[in-house]
């Protein structure tokens, strides 16, 4: 639908927002001066009021004409526009009357002259205010004025809070908030720039003057995305100059919804195969703990650890490294040969020191430290452990049994221990386990081949 | 007062910022700050840049790097980038449409013709992944399913020194900190008795290019992040051993005394490098004990020596260095940089390259296998590659048995393994001439960004402010190549 209005008219029309402030200023000035002159009389006041009223009337007339031109663009909601138009017109006419009364062109001597002057001006001011309010609603949206007001705030639709990302419907929880933040200011039911409203699903599907806003399954061809991806200096770039552009993260959420979610308004995260990056962004947007971390490693939510506790652990001979800034997760390393007793005496006390942070340990290395089966029982309590290095220790199958219930361990190093192929069944039970290192044990290649033939369980890695 | 005076006389510590930070500027400047930086007083997560050092920005996949640098630039066309078209069109001039204005080095700029030269080495596909590897590298061929071959590396430099400097420091001009120094700066040390960045060099019989200590320099970073070159032979670190007649306790007393003098000097001048110096003396003292132990490869069993090859028993060879690298990795060194010189085949390529390949093939593969069986490939990122590639046309006389290749920056191959890199894949593609990249280009900045990512470091956040601007290893570029990350 191409506009048949000449460009020149639309161009002139765009001066409406500029000119419209002149009558507002003049008329308020006249009103204030009128009030003031009742308190302190001065002959100059009368002249000034008269002049301000005339200037106000003329500028109001010009603004009205310009406003009409602007309205021809068709970007605005018709009913609000109508109200604004009529209030504007009435304001202009009444202002002329007010001027006529003030200057004595119309004699209404029967009434009390003094009061009529005030009454006319008050009416003018009220009209200007009402007109201005509707004009504001047209430009900024109907909830602009009261959005941050302390009273009578229209309650936003509150989405039920969710605990898992999978529950989130992509549109309601992710897409709509972005549109609301960056687009709806100009594309709403009362102000439809380019004939497009992004207020709700029906409006989005209706598209705008330039056709459909989105093409399900094809983000590149969807206007909604294409325009945000353009060079910022391009004429079609959205949001236009001066407005905050979409961030890369926001763009990728929108693209993801259109592409992978087929622009379905009901589809939930759980229905889609979301790449790590999207999961990460979405988690952040919803204030959920990022389950993947930026590099795709699952991060547990754990309590903060006191510095005293850490000092204690360091004093026991462990190396402590914070694994991710601010996530309270740690890598703990006991340097090789820190334990000298073949029975592993001394290690018990050391491991006790780790218990206060048992949920915070992600990586643990105790290689070559005479770790016994009984120590594995303690390690079994470290439920968030992802990597465990206990190679070169006298651990047997019984020791492995103690960590069988761990559900987060991905890498387990047991090379040069005393385990046998009986441990395979335990490995198979451990949900997250991906790789087990068993070089230098009695385990043979055939045993490994047999186990791997089932196709389930972790990869067992033997040596040369 | 006394201290203030001496500091103000010393330009090292007092600069404009120092001066302003000492003024009691009061609440007004805070309010101004909050206007200029809207998020200043907002709660929520702190910006990454304000993080303390030594803690990854996000969950790491690797905790150390072993970089097997093939200095001189091995030809991709005789190693990993199989181009049968070169055989079909042997001797034909490289079409201008392919060369597309590529600048040439002074060595071939005078050539009238650029005749296409096929590989003298035969290629075959290996492993489940079907990766193409030439016959020069039979051992690496066997680990094809453990490595990720990137065929689409590219650089801007066309000569060795800027090219290798670019790879090591992220800039063609020298002076920036080395990769290893950045990692040490970003991740801290794991073993207090060893430097976090160690360098080992070896040299093949092929035409070689120089190696300079600037390649492992810490640049403007604290000098404790500098790479420490360990020599082959009896004294891995020169002057580390106590002279005859000096006992270890004498040495201790000496160090304590020197250290107290240095501390006084530090109070006087405020120069932080003095503190680094004190720390380095202490490190050297501890290394007197730790290094001989780590470097003693006689403890290795027969099976391991067989794995790395007989050369691993000869100090100073690439094979011995690979074995050392594994031992250093086991002992908590963060970044182990090997260089093997001799890959600059401007002539006599088939012979020289076969020799070079023989030097490194078995030991490189052995290192991967050895790390894998020890479970260390989980968190050790291994990189194998040179500073650029070589031309698809012949340099010098056109003789398929004895030809040379000039420098080529537009496309070359490297491989990586372990430490969160996808095993058994080939990434990127070149055109049928092996001259231009047609798919998934990887710039050096991208390469750096990816390595840092796997160590848990955000390449855009790890910065160091120097001479009025913030520096990064990737400077103002670099994208993490997500497709090669597990």
UniProtKB/TrEMBL annotation, chain A:
It holds the Pfam family DUF2231. One of its GO terms (molecular function) is heme binding. Residues 15-139 form the DUF2231 domain. The chain crosses the membrane at residues 20-39, 51-71, 83-101, 113-134. Keywords: Membrane, Transmembrane, Transmembrane helix. Residues 183-242 form the Cytochrome C Planctomycete-type domain. PANTHER family: CYCLOINULO-OLIGOSACCHARIDE FRUCTANOTRANSFERASE-RELATED (PTHR35889), F-BOX DOMAIN-CONTAINING PROTEIN (PTHR35889:SF3). This is Uncharacterized protein. It comes from Arenibacter aquaticus. The lineage of its organism: Bacteria, Pseudomonadati, Bacteroidota, Flavobacteriia, Flavobacteriales.
UniProtKB/TrEMBL annotation, chain B:
The keyword Transmembrane helix applies. This is DUF1501 domain-containing protein. InterPro entries: Alkaline_phosphatase_core_sf, DUF1501. The chain crosses the membrane at residues 20-41. Keywords: Membrane, Transmembrane, Transmembrane helix. It comes from the Bacteria.
